Amino acid sequence: MFFKESSDFTKVPNSGYMEGAEPFEYITPTNDKAILFIHGFPGSPKMYYMVRELAIKNGYDVFIPALPGFGTKKEDFIYSNFSMWFNFIKNYYMDKRVKYKRFYIVGTSMGGSITLKLAEEFSGDSSYEPTAIASVAAPVFLNSLFRGVVKSPLLYFIRTIARFISYIPPKEPVKDPSLDEDGECEWVGYYGLFPKQIKSFMFALKTIKRELNKITVPCFLIHAKEDKTVSFKSLPVIFKNIKSDKILLRVISLKKWKHSNHSLFIYKSVVNPLWSDIEYFFNGID
Prior knowledge:
Layout (H helix, E strand, L loop, with lengths): L23 E3 L6 E6 L12 H7 L3 E4 L9 H4 L4 H16 L4 E7 L1 H13 L9 E5 L6 E2 L4 E2 L7 H7 L30 H16 L8 E6 L9 H8 L5 E6 L18 H15 L1
Parallel strand pairs: 2-3, 2-4, 4-5, 5-8, 8-9
Antiparallel strand pairs: 1-3, 6-7
Helix pairs in contact: 5-6
């Protein structure tokens, strides 16, 4: 990173979790396999409420933590940054990893980027290497003129904006749940923009993209082609740069739906086949 930020996640306030945003753990006494789900920005563990039950039925212990500042109040979130989020999840992962013979990581959106960063750090480590990972709708950049991607011109001024503004309310009202046909309104998190946190994430992505060649663990890479939040063009960048011998790509099309095509595990139309593919891939590693 080109700027210094604290990694002490214990400094982030916690005003209590919103309904549905609570961390989740399912542990059985003798299980030898587990899965860690990492949520996105600015979401919460709620995005995995359906798939966690599927994972449990398939015999996994399940861990779904809430990253520091997420799922409580936006007034807590503004005290956090990417270094805090990653330091928290790294410590959490290391504590759980050593207790299982097989340990898998699934991350969505920013959670997918964090999953890639964990794989970069622990590939080749006999104690902490994940058995396999699944990265879902993960960005390794937000804007990229070189690739013809400009999700928001605002991002080019984010460093300056972040110095003066901590929160920008959403332009549009929250979607009416009665108009939701596929489950997007089940998402729980913050609406609006957080310039400081976006800036922190953007700078972290530069390092994650640069170090993709450190990844040697088996990878399942998943993205919806019509994703309106993270450019689909991140997928080939990840695929071309990781060094794993076992890589599976899954391109999803949900264009018939009017939602963002991004938080895939929230969508009732795709959660079951998506999990089946991930579980099939993970089983093939054994």
